[in-house]
Amino acid sequence: MQLVIDSANIDKIKKLIEFLPIDGVTTNPSIIVKEQKPFFPMLEEIRYVIGEEKELFVQVIATNAKDMVEEAKYICKVLGGNVLVKIPVTMEGIKAIKQLKREGIRTLATTIYTPVNAYLAAKAGAEYVAPYVNRIDNLTGNGVKVVTEITEVFSRHNLSCKVLAASFKNVQQIHNVCLAGAHGVTAAPELIEALVEHPSIEENVEKFRKDWFDQYGEESLILNVKK
User: Fold this and answer.
1) Catalytic residues
2) Do 153 and 54 fall into the same domain?
């Protein structure tokens, strides 16, 4: 199961890449604008930080298929490395996904709200779909249920497309989509860090250290213990 950072903040990406088993980075226009930096130089810096092999997802701005395709080609040309282009699941977007598939450009279908959205995108050739879990919940839907049904549709109809669940407000939602069969999650840095956090962990570590120091001396380490 893939773990992807949903951010364009270089410092946060660097930290998570250093400590955790991260598979890539997703961005969208709102995330990009939030950083208030030049577009391609920022993406090139992200590419440098994560390396050539990890996946970098970049979204088009155009709303018609022809321009989406041209933007996708340009994004891939400028950035290089393991790039996927995010395309919204509008009629024009699905048309663009079909054409990009024929041209060998990998895509993620974004703005997924229903299993049928996901089915059409997968059938058109998208490599990933990104259902918006929390946004679906906010519309009085059930985001986790949508993820469950998408994975079931893909499995029953032998669609190789992967479900990269997105839009989370808490760790419990991430936990639930893992159980629902998502192939991966993309989440904000703060939520990814929260996956590690639990008050009992720190308590346990401190208890272990206290017991050790009581026996072997303050600030001693295993490397200092005589055989």
Assistant:
1) 86
2) yes
